[in-house]
Model the fold of this input.
Amino acid sequence: MSFLKHTSLAAMALGAILGATPVAAQSAAEALEQLAGQVLSTGPNGEAPTAASEISLSEADLEAIRAMNATAAIVLHYGGNDWSQAQVNGLRHQFEIMGIEVIAVTDAGFSAATQMSDIETIMAQNPSIIVSIPTDPVATASAYRMAAERGVELVFMDNVPAGLTAGEDYVSVVSADNYGNGVASAHLMAQALGEEGGEIGIVYHAADFFVTRQRYDAFRATIEENYPNIEIVAEQGIGGPDFIGDAERVASAMMISNRGIDGIWAVWDVPAEGVIAAARAAGRDDLIITTIDLGENVAIDMARGGYIHGLGAQRPFEQGVTEAILAGYGLLDREAPAYVALPALPVMQDNLLDAWEEVYSTEAPATVVGSMQ
Done:
């Protein structure tokens, strides 16, 4: 399905969720407040979301799981960012409570072939559980199906392999509200631009990746449906793996081709770092950037009052905890919801330190705290 078709569907979904009163009739700040506690995303197959707060294990459940001496492997698409590390931390924390040994954590470096090899290697250790995010939902599907057929309890982060069915091949998928975070980052952009609006660019993820597509759909639809004074004048996809370098080159080209551009949205924090680098090189101290994911480098920039006006944050530590609990559902042969989601968290400088603690379940690092203006 094309980006434009997704955007059209996303706009319809957003309108249905927010009701008959257009967001444009509100301020951006009011629209951001309206997001609190909501989940706007649907699952990879259109599933309605179940709140993560509804997923739990009793003490009797924990005792039963501890007696199983189960093992788990965490198979990442990419491990080199704060989001991935927080996911692993949340998983390890909850698995320890459940008496489950983590026998492997792998990083595929965004390579589907590497991830398939990782799964084959892990299967030689006979894990009870695999928690994973597919690098490519089509290319990796056969490896995950093989694991499912051998009785491994599969729980997915954000996306699912093509052709696998919840409740049969895997337990559940857990995600942040990526659509909601896209909405939040659009309202934050509008808030920064003010009533006069302006021209903006979009740096999206040029891959068949469910969660990043939802972010793009939501940002674009929210701007187009609610802020007629903001014009999207340029958009370009990046494929990685050098997301910082790719985003820097794309953003530089946008600023050259559109001298009046006022802001650029980046699909997550790592490409946003590339946009920051491009703005610095161009001497564009006035450029406004919004994004998704509370990484340390964008947090430092925000703390300093730099380019990052605001962002929509995921809750990766809590997501990891929820994934581990759902793995317990699989071990207990308990029915689980197909799609579980956590609400978006709009972040600006004034709530940055509190948001960091909510996202990572730890205090903000000294690099961020020391940068606060």
